[in-house]
Amino acid sequence: MKKVISLVLVLAMMATVLVGCGEKQAPTDNAGSETPATPEKAIEIKIATVGNEDHQSTIAAQLFKDEVEKVSNGKVTATIFPNGSLGGEREAAEGVKLGTIQMTVVTSDGALPAWVPDIQVLSIPYLFANKEEAYDILDNTLQQELAPQFEAQGFKHLGFVELGFRHFTNNVKEVKSAADMQGLSIRVQEAPIWFALIEKLGATATPVPFNELYTALQQGMVDGQENPITSIATSKFNEVQKYLTLDGHTYAAESIIMNKDYYDGLSDEVKGYIDAAVAVAIPGQREAVSAKEEEYLQQLKDSGMVVTEADLDSFVKATEGLYKLDEVKKLVDSSLVELIMNKLGK
């Protein structure tokens, strides 16, 4: 029995030695240190835009992409999905809120008022006299005032870029004054304040997603629409619209928004790359869009559109005091409107 036990112990010891000899050692370099770890995988940001490659939203997304990849040395990459390939503006915003899309660039007072009603302050007609006034209020007032409201809804509002002053087009008649708007059906963004604006002008408001607007105009579902010159030109609305009325009823901004949980979960280093890229993209996009505006207006004229300078006073008078209407006050804090007016000296 003792011999058997001794034999078992000897065999066990031999097995242990053999296993130990078979263990693989970590590969070393010439200095004897371990091989460096695999490089950290780049952070990928999916960006949805509704417009085509020449649209203002996609220009902003492209400038952001170029800059964030540059400043991060490729640690952060971005992929743009234009042409509404991930859905219309509401779907894009919902995707960001849910986290299925990291980032989007959408019309500020379009679908976003569903979550942050006060952003509809930008829909108050004839609030800004020029772009400089708009930039100042957007960057130095509204960004700070509304950021907490966006965060409460799951969005990180990174900043405002440009769509431009909005103008009316239609395919029925030349519109020279507010009275000429009577009876027209006008596509508007899906926000109640736009219904009030169009009603004040005696027309009928019809919400249509932007990515479906060309077809709606082509088929006569609506008589007209309202958008900045750049949007009208790049979307080729001149192919299905005859008349353009330059009234500049509102200054339209776009919001660069990111999923808040996604942003908060990034390292301070990566947040810095994103913030730095946005800081470059905002003025760069505004400059690019403004530079193209006159060129696009001439293209629209050359295509055969009848371009009319509006009797602005008639439009201002027809929409005066809109922000004081009960239905509008339920949507936009009138004190916010008055804060802006006071800052503008109005």
Automatic annotation (TrEMBL):
<dbReference type="InterPro" id="IPR038404">
    <property type="entry name" value="TRAP_DctP_sf"/>
</dbReference>
<comment type="similarity">
    <text>Belongs to the bacterial solute-binding protein 7 family.</text>
</comment>
<keyword id="KW-0813">Transport</keyword>
<dbReference type="InterPro" id="IPR004682">
    <property type="entry name" value="TRAP_DctP"/>
</dbReference>
<keyword id="KW-0675">Receptor</keyword>
<keyword id="KW-0732">Signal</keyword>
<dbReference type="Pfam" id="PF03480">
    <property type="entry name" value="DctP"/>
</dbReference>
<feature type="signal peptide">
    <location>
        <begin position="1"/>
        <end position="19"/>
    </location>
</feature>
<protein>
    <submittedName>
        <fullName>Tripartite ATP-independent transporter DctP family solute receptor</fullName>
    </submittedName>
</protein>
<dbReference type="InterPro" id="IPR018389">
    <property type="entry name" value="DctP_fam"/>
</dbReference>
